[in-house]
Amino acid sequence: ALTSELGKQIKLKEVEGTLLQPATVDNWSQIQSFEAKPDDLLICTYPKAGTTWIQEIVDMIEQNGDLEKCQRAIIQHRHPFIEWARPPQPSETGFHHVAQVGLKLLSSSNPPALTSQSAKITDLLPPSFWENNCKFLYVARNAKDCMVSYYHFQRMNHMLPDPGTWEEYFETFINGKVVWGSWFDHVKGWWKMKDRYHILFLFYEDIKRDPKHEIRKVMQFMGKNLDETVLDKIVQETSFEKMKENPMTNRSTVSKSIMDQSISSFMRKGTVGDWKNHFTVAQNERFDEIYRKKMEGTFINFCMEL
Ligand code: A3P
Hints:
Structural class: alpha/beta
Shape: globular
Distance between the termini: 44 Å
Helix content: 40-55%
Order of helices and strands: HEEHHEHHHHEHHEHHHEHHHHH
Bound molecules: adenosine-3'-5'-diphosphate
Strand content: 5-15%
Number of strands: 6
Radius of gyration: 18 Å
Number of helices: 17
Largest sheet: 4 strands, parallel
Strand order of the largest sheet: 4-3-5-6
């Protein structure tokens, strides 16, 4: 049985200096040999940047706003992660090698898009995505809110190491000692690639500020054309409030031994600027200094509050 103690025993492994979950590393060669097709759309995010949100948006666009069709399965199954390899889960019986559930799902279904959190992209993404010149949909979220969200996620997710205190986690995060590595490397890597490949680069904060505008961009990128009323419906159904109540997106089907939502909800706050409730003045100054150094030469403007 999996117990809440498990989280504390989790020993992460590394690929090319990036920390990953052990089951992902154990399946690494299989993941790397994944064969993308030219018309694949890959959703790429750093953890906690709004992965679930963009997954639901893409599926709703693909299904022309048909809510019932989007209820056909939980989001993790509708949009499998290519690197999603984990130890067996009590709620997912029927797989002999559940560690390969992501890959198995991919070969058995035809998802509208795939999802990846590969960090140093040129090194970690299966090469077939570049070779086939696939479409990439990248969502970036400001580093401070990502850190806060990831901290609470590690508190409740027993498949990840215990984050320790907020002060301890601050160091862990800025040093990139979290699963999928450094936020800075991830965002810089994709930002550099965006003019060389077919990448739509979106910001969490923009989707929050003007969802219809950003959802329309995604629709156009996907080569779809939907009516205004359908777009309005997608905006409504992918709001934080709706997705928090939706069992197909809120992870309520995941067992408590894996995600204990009594500690912190998977759909936690969904706001811009929650970092202000966590960062001390000193931490904020130190973070800004580190940010300047690490992001030198990369001109991305992140919105820190709405
Ligand atoms: P918070 O912890 O700040 O609330 P991911 O899906 O990549 O794990 O990201 C999770 C973060 O996105 C969480 O942030 C979650 O609340 C937020 N989120 C999920 N759905 C959202 C939505 N529809 N609107 C806004 N934020 C959303």
